[in-house]
Amino acid sequence: MVDKKIVCLGGGIGTVNLVKGLIKYTGKVTVVASMADDGGSTGRLRRLYSIPPPGDLISCIAAMSQADEMMKKALTYRFEGQRYGREESLGGHKLGNLMMVALTSVMGDFSKALLQMQKLFKTKGRILPATIEPISIWAQTSVGERVDREENIDLGRFTGTIEKLHIKPVNPTTSKEVIEAIISADLIIAGPGDLYSTILPVLLIPRIINAIKKSKAKKLYIINVANKLFETPNYKINDYIKAITSHCGANIFDYVLMNNNITVSIPEKFARQYKFVQLNYKKEKGYQVIASDIVNTQFPLYHDSDKLAKAIMENI
User: Fold this and answer.
1) What is the per-residue pLDDT for 306?
2) What angle do CA 164, 168, 171 make, to 5 degrees?
3) How does strand 226-228 pair with strand 126-129?
4) Are 150 and 37 in contact (CB under 8 A)?
5) What is the model's pLDDT at position 87?
6) CA distance 53 to 57
7) Could you tell me the pTM of the whole model?
8) Which of 19, 44, 235, 297 is 20 to 30 A off residue 110, Cα-Cα?
9) 1-26+174-316: CATH homologous superfamily?
10) Mean pLDDT score of the chain, rounded to an integer?
């Protein structure tokens, strides 16, 4: 798989950790990032300036940047203050997000601004928005509640468990670059990342899921190290694949990669919100499960970038 074309679907911190490792093996990595994010600094700028959400795009640019380390630190610098503060306040914003607002204004086009940011920070690979326009998501829960907005799903502001996720609009516009990248890929990876607030908002886009099904690429789903208890409570591998199958009309993945090192401890601060995904699962036809030590032992809610990339290169 060395120097092969790899498409990574998602865009959150899981994708960031993934591409940090992958770009050491290949320069042909394409990130397709969800445009459903509406929380924190990103959400404030999205509402205030009517632009697509820049946050995940900026995080991926920093992860794939070959620029000077100080430049990368400046890109992700967050001004002191509350991420969920007042819309017009500087506090809590990432400098990179503000740069995207400025470049969009200067160039008159968000896509052109994103391309310019990648040139400025010398990204190895490329980052594409999943949709040309921003989208929103909403979910139905097991108690009949409707939960609107990615932020509310991400922060667990609902009762019951999530049963069905929806995107709005239901058929958003996707660029030809995204479709071409998926069709021509050697490997398509979804995850790691929150299933309902990061991964499915990309997979639910009709043109993207159709392209994935048509692509001859190998397809890999990376299970999170730990379940966020209000979003994927006690989910095992089978539960993740069942949710993907019900939303996408079929299981689209050939391989599932999971962490098998649960000897480390989740930090006490997060112990009530997260629980390791259990190793036991029911073997099912249609996909192969690969278990490997891919956890970041320094912060065991995340994957280790190097171990994760190595496991992919050695097993897929």
Assistant:
1) 98
2) 100
3) unpaired
4) yes
5) 73
6) 8
7) 0.96
8) 19
9) CofD-like domains (3.40.50.10680)
10) 95
